[in-house]
Amino acid sequence: xxxxxxxxxxxxxxxxxxxxxxxxxxxAVAAAIAAFWITVNAHFLAHPGWLAVQKAxxxxxxxxxxxxxxxxxxxxxxxxxxxxxxxxxxxYIFTSSTxxxxxxxxxxxxxxxxxxxxxxxxxxxxxxxxxLAERGILLVLVLTTGLVYVIATLTAPQFSPSxxxxxxxxxxxxxxxxxxxxxPWPSLLTDVARAGVVVSAIATVCVLAxxxxxxxxxxxxxxxxxxxxxxxxxxxxxxxxxxxxxxxNQATVAAGPISGAIAWTIAGARSAIWYxxxxxxxxxxxxxxxxxxxxxxxxxxxxxxxxxEQMLREPLGDPTLRLAFWWSDxxxxxxxxxxxxxxPGPGQVMTEIDHDGRVxxxxxxxxxxxxxxxxxxxxxxxxxxxxxxxxxxxxxxxSVRELAESRMRLVKASDEARRKLERDLHDGAQxxxxxxxxxxxxxxxxxDEPELVSxxxxxxxxxxxxxxxxxxxAHGIYPTVLTDMGLAGALRSVALRQPDRITVTATxxxxxxxxxxxxxxxxLEAVQNALKHAGEDAHITIRLxxxxxxxxxxxxxxxxxxxxAVEHDGLGLRSMEDRLGAVGGQVEIRSVVxxxxxxxxxxxxx
Length: 606
Description:
Heat Shock Protein 90; alpha+beta; 10% strand; single chain
């Protein structure tokens, strides 16, 4: 019941998230259409057409990319920053309005746009501002740009937008938020804001360069895709604001070709920043997919835990990566080498991998890999796959071992029963019959009547035939020669039945009892089949030899052969396979019509 309720709650939460995402997209699309329409008709702006496209993109771009980041990386705050940046773009529409209050609100919105843009660049790709440098940069930007914008908006009767393409053709609308008298040093405030932008941009460039220089391969891969556009924007912004700040004639510099080119570069690069973040996320997903496919192929080869650990280090770019498996008996983690693991070391984190509601394994990895969760998730999936494969393989090997042991026990029991029956026949019925023969010979010598002597002679002959048949039967059940003389001697005894048709070449020596028994009865079955089916003129060759740690038996005849594609009952192949399989061996029958038959059996000597 609890699982059902939990599943329903999770489904409901997911449904609400999708509803909220659709609502956000609808608002963003409506706002983008409004931004384009209002701006393209704002003829007091210097570039209304380009600004219309840019303002629409400033709403749709960061909002859409932010939602995608939230979908793929829900624990990453970069998506939230981008969505907030998109909603600031909604307020920035008011810079295209001639209503003084709305125009003032639009200009004031530039401050949070600048701060959020820099915050998104600094938070990429983790979504966090962990270092003092990142926090210090944002603090400088807030204290300079943010404070200047607030003071200027509340005091300046005329306050022009400062973004590179957002200037006015002549005079901009009045600032409706100016509630205090103008400040005596407005140019100083402007210089402070520009200096703050320059310092923050250069410091951010240094932070990104340091991250790339000290980062792991996954971090470098993310930065190499998402950061170049941001670097272009930062360098262009720092150059543009420096020219404005240090030039004696700012109006001439602003109208010059260099400043114009830089201004357009800033506009294009700023709009492309979030698309660089999108490409970085897609690139991470594609790379994780390629790694997953490659690792799946490797995992299908049943690597050991140590091999799996080595296999994961290269694609994840972390030579210190360790795998950990839960030790239920000791209530702790054990490494791939089964040694007890302690807590993660400096700069490492542990990512636990759940399976069926319980912790199955964990990865101790460089903390920078948290920036690439798709890669860690792919590694976790491979660990689960390989872990299950190892468990399945262990279970399979155990089952095979139990089956082999069971077959061995059955064969041993059968052989013991054969030995007992052979002993019982030899020591019991056979001895009794021999005694009867001796007694009958005594009676026959004392008989006087010719008719009685003839009858006793006939009975004596029948008893001798019965003894011979019983001896052959006992020998077939379990040959004494196999115990006394070994496999080579037993095979020669088989040849004595048809010495003109059977030839034996055998390696002398003793081998494990079960192996000798299995090969003997396999040979006996093959010889009987050859004598029965190969033809009266067929010759049979028996060969026993060792090769590369195996004992090999070949029974070859020159008979008529048969078609292996057609099933033949009575060949005893199943009996041969069972006996050889019990000792870890195998048997194969090859035959061609008109060219004879070969029965080849092999058993390991280890």
